[in-house]
């Protein structure tokens, strides 16, 4: 399923990134979701795990994106782990931001072409 890059409905209202830059950031997320995500799991209500292609270039790209994202949406917690030949990204949010995590989860699954549940 292709999700239009111009659909920014999943971008959180709490985002402080200037509106003009939001489509570029959304595109960066979509690129990661499409090119690097191989599985998406809801670990807890407030935590999602993205399983990524275990590649150093992917790890560097994702780390850079996460650093930039926490500058504008500081409520996100990102943990990038490389262990045992696997690469994962855990995304956490506080209870008040669970709808944002839900939207991110749905966006990741749709853009990566994964099952919706």
Characterise this structure.
This protein has three helices and four strands. Helices cover 40% and strands 24% of the residues. The protein has one domain: Gyrase A, domain 2. A four-stranded antiparallel sheet has the order 1-2-4-3.
What oligomeric arrangement do these chains adopt?
A: single chain
Whole-number average pLDDT? 82
Number of domains: 1
Share of helix, binned: 40-55%
CA-based shape:
globular
CATH topology, anyone? Answer: Gyrase A, domain 2
Query: How much beta, percentage-wise?
Result: 15-25%
* Count of individual beta strands: 4
> How many DSSP H or I helices?
3
Give me the side-by-side strand order of the main sheet.
1-2-4-3
Elements, N to C (H/E): HEEHEEH
Stretches where pLDDT is under 50 for at least 5 consecutive residues are 1-6
CATH architecture classification name = 2-Layer Sandwich
CATH class categorisation = Alpha Beta
Distance between the termini: 14 Å
* Rg, Cα atoms, Å: 13 Å
- The structural class is alpha+beta
* Main β-sheet description: 4 strands, antiparallel
